[in-house]
Amino acid sequence: MNKYFRRILFSDCLSSIATQAYNLFLIWYFASQLHNQSLIALLSSIQLADLFFGPLGGAVADISNPLKVIKQTTFYRIIISLLLLAITCFMQVRALAFFLLLFALITSIISAFYAACIEVTTYKLSQSETELIKNNTGFTALTQLASIFSAALMAVMSAFLSLKESILIITLLLVISGLSILSKKLPINLIEHQAKKINFSELFTQTFQGIGQLKKLKVITVIIPYALALNFLYWLFWYLQPAFLNNSLSLFKSAFSIQELVIATVSVITTLFIQKKPQLIAHTVKHYRFLLLFQNGSLFLLSLSFAFLNRQNLILICVLLFWTIYSIFNTLTGIIFLTMIQNKVDEQILGTILSTSFTLLSSMTPLAGICSDFIWLRAVNLVVITGLMVLIILLSFFDHRFTAILNSL
Question: Residue 306 and which of 82, 134, 289, 318 are 20 to 30 A apart at CA?
């Protein structure tokens, strides 16, 4: 792995810990300290900004030097966090809600451009297929680690720290993250690019041209519809499961927290293993649909255990076992999916394609959250949801276009 890319990963991990912990902390703060559900709804709606800024961020990554944009967005994020810290120190707590939400919105917009450039840099700093897989697995592993540490940091902040102290910790993490990027030891000429200014006309033209290319790329038009359906059903299941666990596992109140820790830990271990054995991706890519079947089939079996088991200790064992299986195969299919797009898409529009694709997939999360309110919390409904996931994958085996794409890899 390129030493400069390792520096980028380290910085990205710290900034992810900070931003994820901040958003989790805000949910807790608005609920337990301000007792205002409307603020939580506003915070949740902020992620919809990605639907607009995600593709724009991808276009910026395509028409500019992504390393330069990474440095610029990192600098802006530090400035914004320092401003929030100053406001927090001199303003009454009750009047801070607006600025807390504003910071979340601005960092979300900045992250849309930053994340797109990270995705493109992952590809452009790879000199071979093996290095690309290692870069992708390294990025995935640190993303999972960031989730673990952000949850732990949020727990510490909510239990022991005041709002001002929590904002100070977030700011320090962003500053440390930024120093490793803004250092002269990360030269922007690592990626060759013709220096030029970006104008809005060119930016929007590139964005719409890139989006227009989506319907011409078979890897997108064939696989993305399946991914959207599976992603929606997964998040629908995920939103329903915590309440179901709370009702079914009254003796194990921390079951959901343990589950999330297992998912993150297994994912990290799997990605580290793939990084040591990158040839595993090349050997399994043609069996992508079978991997998806094992991945989502594990959730179907978990739902069946909810429906037919009565002993809480057995249900808990099934939760940990089947989420472990899911995490292993989810890591494999995620890296394969990303590598497929990187190898099949022209690098001139790679940023726009990746950002638009992942924006579409992420849009399923709030949609599933809304729909979850209209579904009765019963085991049979979980069986139906995960059964549909398995059915969708089985149908893909009869899709000759899907087979042709896998055979061409």
Answer: 289
